[in-house]
Amino acid sequence: MNAANIPLDHLMLLSCMIFVIGLAGVMMRRNVLYILMSLEIVLNAVCLAFVSAGAHWGKADGQIMFMLILSLAAAEVSVGLGLILQIHRKHGTLDVDRLKELQG
Amino acid sequence: MNFGFPHFMALLPVISLTVASVVVMLCTAFFRRHGLIAALTLLGLGITLACLHQQSGIAAIEVTPLMQFDRLSVFFSAWILVAAMVVTLLSWHYFRTREGLSEELYVLLLTATLGAVVMVSSIHFASFFLGLEILSVSLFALVAYPVTSLTRKDRSAASPIEAGIKYLILAGIASAMLAMGMAFLYAATGELSFSGIQTMLQTDAVHESRNLYAMGGIVMILAGVAFKLALVPFHMWTPDVYHGAPAPVTAFLATVSKFAMLVLILRAFLFARGDHPEAVIAVVTGVAAVSMLVGNLLALQQNNVKRMLAYSSISHSGYVLVAFLAGMVASTANAIKAEGIEVEAIAFYIVSYLLTSLTAFGVVSVLSSGRERVSYSRESGGNVDAETRDTDGLQDYESLFWKRPVMASVFAIALLSSAGIPLTIGFMGKFYIFAAGVTSALWWLLLVLIASSGIGLFYYLRLVLVMFRLPEGGHDGHGEEVMAPAQTTAAALVREIPVGARWLMVLLGGVILWLGVYPGPLMAEIRDILVAMRVAG
Amino acid sequence: MLNAIACVTLLPLFGFFVLTLLRPPERVAAWIGCGTVAAAAAILFTITIGFLQNPPAEGHAVVHYGTWVGIGSFQPGFSAWVDMLTLTMLCIITGVGFLIHVYSAGYMVRDEGFARYFSYLNLFIAAMTVLVMADNLLLLFMGWEGVGLCSYLLIGFWYRDPANGAAARKAFIVTRVGDTAMIIGFFMLYLQFSTIDIAEILRRSHEAIYFNQSLYTVVALLLLGGAVGKSAQLPLQTWLPDAMAGPTPVSALIHAATMVTAGVYLIARTHPLFMQAPLAQHAVGWVGLLTLLIAGASALVQVDIKRILAYSTISQIGYMFLGLGVGAWSASIFHLMTHAFFKALLFLSAGTVIFCLHHKQDITEMGGLRKLMPLTFASFVIGCGSLASLPLITSGFYSKDEILIGAWNSGEMAFFWGGVVGALITAVYSFRLVFVVFFGAPKTHPDHAPTLNMQVPLVLLGILSVMGGAIHLRLDGVLPIGSHEVSTGGHGMISALLIVLPLVGVALAWWLYRRGITWTKTTGAPAAMLFFRRGWAFDALYDAVLVHPWVWLATVNRSDVVDSGYTAVARLTQWLYQQASITQTGSVRWYAGVMIFGFTLILSAAVFL
Amino acid sequence: MMLLDLIVLLFGGGILAWISGRMDARFPRWVSLIVLLVGLLYLITHWVGADPDLADRALSGIPSGSGVWQFALVADWMPLFGVKFFLAADGLSLALLVLTFGLGIVAVFSAWSEITDRSGFFYFNLLWTLAGVAGIFSALDLLLFFFFWEVMLIPMYFLISLWGHEKREYAALKFFIFTQVSGLLMLLSIIALAFFHYQQTGVITFDYFSLRNTPLPEGVGIWVMLGFFVAFTVKLPSVPFHTWLPDAHTQAPTAGSVLLAGLLLKTGAYGLMRFILPLFPSQAAQFAPIAMLLGVISILYAAKLAFAQLDFKRLIAYTSISHMGFILLGIFSANALAMQGAVIQMLAHGISSSALFAIAGSLQHRLHTRQFSRMGGLAKTMPNTAAMGVFFSIAALGMPGFGNFVGEALVLFGSFQVNPLLTMLATVGMILSPIYALKIIQKVFHANAEAEPIGDALGEQARAEDFRFHERLSMGLMVVAILWLGVHPQPVIRLVEPSISALLVPAPVQVSGLAQQDEWSIGR
C-alpha cells in the first residue's frame, strides 16, 4: 500500500495523537527514565509527521529531517541517561519529584 | 549545487570551530592539564574569530541551502565568539581551584559555540534544528557539569544535576514542539527553507485547509523559540537552571544560547516581512506583556542573585519582543513607513543584552571563583559546602563595594544597564525599543514596559544598595527591615580575585559604559549590516 | 529737601541692621534705637515745615528712588508719595514713635533681649513709614506686611512663654486673613487698571472707560477686609486683646497709636474707590459702628488694665471707620491723630503702673494709686478724659465731635445715635478704670518709681493729648470735603449733647463706683457680663468653626492619604510577587505541565481568535 | 565650550574627590569646595566677559527670535538619530547655573562636619549630582537633556540611601522609582515627538529648536505633552505625585536635602518652563486650567500637611511642595509676569528651603532629633541658629522684602490675569503659610526648653553649640542672596526677560522682533 494514498490529515492527526501521548507521559510519570522514554515518543511523533509530510509533497526533506531528529534524540537520551545515572547515585531514587532543591 | 573556494572560505569559521573541538578533545585524552586545554580553547576561538574577521566585508553567500554567511552572521558570530572566549576565561578561573576533572568542559563549550554559530547563519529549518540541538545537548552536559568530575562524598553538587535534568526534560519538550511546528509548516507548504516557506505563505499557495497547519506550525515554532528565550509561559526552567548551573555556564546559558536564538529569529524575521496574522500579533503581544511583568515580579524580592538575574532575563526577552512586535505591526499595517528601525532595535538590544548579562554573570562567576579567604561558618548556611557554593546569596554582596570596589562597580554598572539607566548600553537598547514601539504606536505595550521597568528598578537597586551599603559601625542608625537581606550575620564568601579576572571585568564594564555614552559607531554598523541585508534580500 | 524723605525709612532701618548684627549692650542699643528715630523725626519735621511753607502745585510730590520690579506695566518702584496725609501719618509715627522709644529705654531696662527689642521697634518704624509713603500697591503691601511681622515679633517678644507665642501667631494669622483679601483686591485693581501705581489707579477710577460699579464695590470690600484685619475691626478684631501679651510700650506704639490705624489710612488713601462704591462705604460705617459698640461693651467689664485699653482701641478705631463710612474723611484722620496721642499716653501710663507694680495687670489688685503715683495719675486722667472726650479741654472731644457731626449730616441716623451711645459707654468705662485703679484704698504698693526717661514722654504726650485738638490738619488737598464740614443745621443741639454726654458718663461711672458696681467679679458674674468679657465669644466661635476643624483635618491626615495610594500599589506588587513565586515549585512535572498548558492556551487563542 | 568645561569640571572633580578621599578623609570636602568655587568663578568671569549674543547661530542652528543664547556648543553624538551634543545657555539657564554652584557650596558646607564616613564617595556623588543638574540646565538636545536628567539620579540615590537617616533606603528607593518611571514616560514622549517631527519633515532630530515647530496629530499631542508634564511634576513635585518628596527630603543627609530642595526640584520647574510651553503651546493652553488647579491644590494641600507634621525636616519638605505649587501656577499662566514670578520663586525657594534644611540638619546633627516635641527654646542656647531659623521661616511665609514674596506676588498678579478664581484660591495659601512657618519658630526656637520634658535631649541642647564659622558663612551668603532677590530682583528679571519672551512666543522662527515686543504689554 502506498503511503501517499493515506490522506495527510490522517497521518498528521495520528502523529499529533502520539505527540500528545508522549507529552502526557512526560507530565504524568515520576520516574526520570520513563520521562525520557516519553520524550522519545514525542520525538517519534515528530518524525512521523515529517515523513508523512515529505511523502505528501513527494520530497526527500522529510526523511532527512527524520534522520536528523533521530540522531539528535539519541544524543539527548545519552546525555540524559548519564544524568540519570548520577541522580541515582546521589539520591538513590529516580523519582523526579524528589528533585526540588531548586525552587522559589 | 556548487561548492567552491568562496564557499569554503565562508564556512571556515564553522570548520575551525569543529576542528578546535576535536583537537581539544584529543588533547584532553593525552594531557589533562587544565591551563593548557583552556588556552587551546581560547586559541581555537581566537582563530575562528580571525577567520570571521577575514570575511567581514564579503557579500552574502549561500553555502548549501542550509546556511547563508553574510554580514549579519559574521557580526553576530563575532559577538558569540567573544562571549565564548569570556566564558572560557571565566571557566578556567572558576574550575581551576575546584576539585575534579574539568577539561572536557571546554570541548562542550566549543561544540555549544559551534551550535550557536550554525544557528546564526542558518536559513533553513534543518540547520536551525541542527544548530539548536548541538547547542542544547552540549548545554545539558554543561549545566550538570561538575557532576562528572565528582569523585567522592556529599550531596553538595546535587543542584547542577537537578538543573541539568530539568533543563534536559523541558528543553526536550521544547525542541519537540519546535520540530513538530516545523513538520506542520512543512506539511502546509512543502518547504523547509525560510524563504521558501515565506513565499508559500505569502502567495496564498497554501490550501485553505492547510491554514490550520500553518497556524499551528507557527505557534509551535514560536513556543519552541519562546522556551529558549524564557518567555512566559515557557519561562519556569530559567531560574532553576541558572541557579543550579555553575556560574560560568550560567553566563554562557544566559548569553550565547539566548543570543543565538534571538539572532535566528531576527534573521527569520527579515524573511518574514509582510502580513502577519492578527492572531499571532495578539498572542505575541500578550506574551510580551506578561513576560515583562511576570519576569520583573518574580525577581522582586528574590534573595538569590543568580535567580534574580534569571528572572530579569525573562523580562528582557519580553522587552525585545516589543521590538519584534513593532516590526510585525509595522510590516503588517504599512500605514507607517517602517524604515527598519524595529530590526535595528532588535539587533542593538540583543547586543546590549549580551554584554550586560555577560558582565553580570561574569561578576558572579569571578566572585564565585578562587579559594575563599574567610571560612564560611557552618551554622549559618545549610548543607552547602563553602568551596562549591557559588557566591550568589544576597548577603554575599553586603557592602561589597567597600571590600571589592572594582567588582562591585562593574556589577553595579551591569545592573544599571539591565535597568536601563543612561550612561549604559542598556539605556540605549531601551531607547531603541521605545523608538520602535513609538513608530508602530504600541502605546499600551510601552506603558506596560514602563510599569515593569518600575518594578524592575526595585530589585536592581536593592542589590546595588546592598553592595554599596556602608559597613556596620561606620554610620549611625541601621538599615530597615524592608530591605535587609536574609541574614547579615552569615559570613559572606570572600575570595581572592586575580588581576586578570578583574581587568577582564573592568573591560566589560568599560565597554558597557563606552557604548552607553557613545553608541554611534555600533548603531551605524548595525544599520549598515541591515541595509545590506535588505538590499540583498 | 524732599528727597531726604527716604531717610525717615532708612535711618530706623539702619538702626535695625546695626542692632541685629552687632547686638550692642543696653545703653548703646538705646542710643542707636532712639537716636535713629529721633533723627528721622527731625528730618521729617523739617520736610513737613518746608512742605507746608512751599507746597507743590498738585498738592503732592513723588520721589522716585529706584525700581523694585519692572515687568511690562507692572512697575512697582521704591518711591515715596508725599502729601499732607502722608506727612501727618509720618509725623504721628515718628513723633509718637520717638517718645515711645525713649520710654522703652526705661521700661525694658535689664531685659535680656534689650537690643533685640529696639531692633524690632526700629524695624517697625521703618516698615510703617514704608506703608504710608508707598506710592504703589506692592510697596504698600510690603510695609503692611512688615508692620505685621514686627507686631508678631514684638507680641511674642518674651518667647519663653508659649502663651505669648500663641498670641503673636494669632495676631499674625488673623491679620493675614485680611491681608489676603486686600491683596486679592490689589490683583483686581491691577487687572482693571493695568497699573499698580496708587495715584494712577485713583485717577483712572474717575474715568468713564474704566468705570465698573460692581468691580469697585468688590475691590472696596476687599480693601475693607484688609483694613478690618489690620485695624482689628469686626469680624477680625479678636487678635488685638490677645496682642497685649507684648511689652506695654509695644502695645502703645503698635497696637494703639500707629499700626492698627493703618486700616483707616488705607481707606482714606483709597477713598475715591470707596466713593465710587457707596455700598462699600456704607459697609465701612456699619463695621465701625458695630465694632465700637461691641468693643465698648467688652471694655466695660474687663479686669485686665491692658485689655480694657485694647478694647477701647478697637472701639475708637470703630469711630474712625464710622467717620470714613459717613464721609467725614479728615475727621477720621484727625481722630486717628488725637487717638494716637491719648491712647499712647494711656498705654504708657498703664505701663508705668504695671512697671511699678511688678508686672501686675489686674485692676482688682490695684487701687488708691492716686497719691502714690501722682504723675501717672495725672497723665492717666488726661488720657481717659481725652478718650471720654471731656468737653473743650481734651483733644478727643474735638475729633469725636467732628465724626459725630459727620454722622449726623450723613442722614443715616443709626450711625449718629450709635455713635452717641458709644460715646457714653466710652466715658463710663474709661472713668471706671480711673476710679478702680487710682481711687479707694491702696491694695498694692509700687516698689519702684518710673525713671526719668519714662516720665518725660508721659508729660509730652499729656500735653499733646490736651493740645492736640488745636492742631489744624491741612488735608483739604488730599481728602475731599468731609460730611462734617457741610452745614446742615442742628449742630448746636449736637454740640450741646456732646458736651453733656461725657459728663453724664463720668458721673455715671462715679455713681456706679460708689455703689461698688465695678463689674470686676470673675466668678458668679452674670452670663451677659462674662459674654462681654470674652469679647462676645468671637474667639470661641472661630475656634469651633475654623481652628478646631483645621487642626482636626491636619491631624487626621498627617501621613497624607495620597501616599496610601502608592503604598497600595507597592503592596499589590508584593502580593503579586508572592503569588508568582508560588508557581516556581521546583517540580519539573509542574513546569512541563505549565508549559504544555500555556502552549495549548496560546494555540487555541491563535487558532480561534 | 564653557558649559562643557563646567560639566567636565564637576564630573572630574567628583572623581578627584573620591580619589583624594582615599588619602585623607578631610581632603574631599576641600576638593569639592575648590571645584565649586572655581566653577562659580569661571562661570561668572566668562559670563561677564562674554558678548551677550555669543552663540554662533549659523553653527548651532539656534533660530533668531528665540532668546539670547550664549556659549553654544554643538557636536554630533548619535548621527543616526540626529542626536547632538548640544549645550547652550540663556539667561534662565545662567541664573540657574549660578544657583547650582552657589547651593553646591552650601551643600558642601552643610556636609562639612556631618559626613565623616567614606567622605570621598560622598563628595563624588555630590559633585556628580551637581554635574547632572548643570547639564539639565544647559542641554538643548532633548535626548541629551534626558541623559542628564537621569544621570543625576544615581548619585542622589546613593547620597540618600547611604548617608541618610533611619528610613533612608525606603526613601531613596521611592525617590528613584518615582523619578525614573516618570522619566521613562518622558522618554516615550521625547521619542514620540521626534517621531512625529520625522513623519512630517523626514528629518530625524532631537534638537530643541527644531522640535518646537512640530504640529502634533489631534488627540495625540496632549498625551505626548502629558509624558513631559508627569515627569516634570513628579520632580517639581505637585499633588498627586508629591509623596516621594517628604520621605526623600526627610531621610536625606543635610547636603542631600539641600540639593534636593534647592536644585532637583528646580529641574522639574525648569523642564516645565523650557519644554512644555514652547514645545506644546496649544496643548499646554488646553491643559493649563488643570495644571493650574494642580498647582493650587499643591499649595493648599501641602500647606495643610506641613502644618500637621511633627518632624522638622518633613515640615519643610511639605512647604517645598506648597511653594512649588506657585511655580506650577505661574508657568501655566503663561504670561511674562507669572513666568518671571516663577523664576524668582525658583531661585528664592532654592535658597530659602536649602537654608531651612541646612538649619534642620545642623540641629539634627547636634541634637540627634528632628522631632518638634524634643526641641524648643533654642533661641536662648543657639542665638545665631535661631536668628537664621526665624529669618528663613519668615522668608518661607512670603514676607515682602524676601525673594519668596516677589516670586509669589508676581505669580499671583500674573495668574490673576488668566484665572482669577484659581488665583484667589491660591492666595488663600498666603494665610496657610504663616500657620506652618510660625509653627517652626514657635516649636523650635521659641517656647521654653525647660518647660517641656525633653529627656536626654535637654543635656544635648545645653551642650549644643551654635553655628560654626563655615555654617555662618554659608547662611550669611544665603541671607544676602534672598534679601537681594527680595528688594532688587530687577537684574534677574532683566536677565531672564529674553528667555521668557522667547518661551511665550509660540513659534520663534516666524516671529519678527516687532511681534516680540508686543508680548511685553501684558495685561490689557
Question: What's the Cα radius of gyration of chain B?
Answer: 23 Å
User: Which two chains form the greatest contact, residue counts included?
Assistant: C-D, 53 and 60 residues
* Rg of Cα set of chain A: 17 Å
Secondary-structure element order of chain A, N to C: HHH
Largest sheet of chain A: none
Question: H/E series of chain B, N to C?
Answer: HHEEHHHHHHHHHHHHHHHHH
SSE class of chain A: mainly alpha
Q: Mean pLDDT of chain B, nearest integer? A: 83
- What's the average pLDDT of chain A? 87
Note down, in words, how this protein is organized:
The complex is a heterotetramer of chains A (104), B (537), C (609) and D (524). Chain A has helices spanning 8-28, 32-57, 61-91. Chain A has 104 residues and is mostly helical. The mean pLDDT of chain A is 87. In chain C, 72% of the residues lie in helices and 2% in strands. Chain C contains 25 helices and two strands. Chain C is globular, with a radius of gyration of 30 Å. Chain D has 524 residues and is mainly alpha-helical. Chain D has two domains: 1-223, no CATH class; 280-507, no CATH class. In chain D, 74% of the residues lie in helices and 3% in strands. Chain D starts with a helix and ends in a 6-residue tail after the last helix. Chains in contact: A-B, A-C, B-C, B-D, C-D. The interface between C and D is large, with 53 and 60 residues.
Topology:
The complex is a heterotetramer of chains A (104), B (537), C (609) and D (524).
Chain A: H1 8-28, H2 32-57, H3 61-91
Helix pairs in contact in A: 1-2, 2-3
Chain C: H1 6-22, H2 26-53, E1 61-67, E2 77-82, H3 84-107, H4 114-133, H5 137-155, H6 162-193, H7 198-205, H8 213-230, H9 239-242, H10 248-257, H11 262-269, H12 271-276, H13 278-301, H14 305-325, H15 329-356, H16 369-372, H17 374-387, H18 395-410, H19 413-438, H20 452-467, H21 491-514, H22 527-533, H23 538-556, H24 561-583, H25 588-608
Antiparallel strand pairs in C: 1-2
Helix pairs in contact in C: 1-2, 1-4, 2-3, 2-4, 3-4, 3-10, 3-15, 3-20, 4-5, 5-6, 5-10, 6-8, 8-11, 8-13, 10-15, 13-14, 13-19, 13-22, 14-15, 14-18, 14-19, 15-17, 15-18, 15-20, 17-19, 17-20, 18-19, 18-21, 19-21
Chain D: H1 2-23, H2 27-49, H3 57-60, E1 70-78, E2 83-89, H4 91-111, H5 119-138, H6 142-151, H7 153-163, H8 168-201, H9 208-211, H10 220-235, H11 244-251, H12 254-279, H13 281-308, H14 312-333, H15 336-367, H16 378-381, H17 383-396, H18 403-418, H19 420-445, H20 456-463, H21 469-487, H22 490-504, H23 513-518
Antiparallel strand pairs in D: 1-2
Helix pairs in contact in D: 1-2, 1-5, 2-4, 2-5, 4-5, 4-12, 4-15, 4-21, 5-6, 5-7, 5-12, 6-8, 7-8, 8-10, 8-11, 10-12, 11-12, 11-14, 12-13, 12-14, 12-15, 13-14, 13-19, 14-15, 14-18, 14-19, 15-17, 15-18, 15-21, 15-22, 17-19, 17-21, 18-19, 18-21
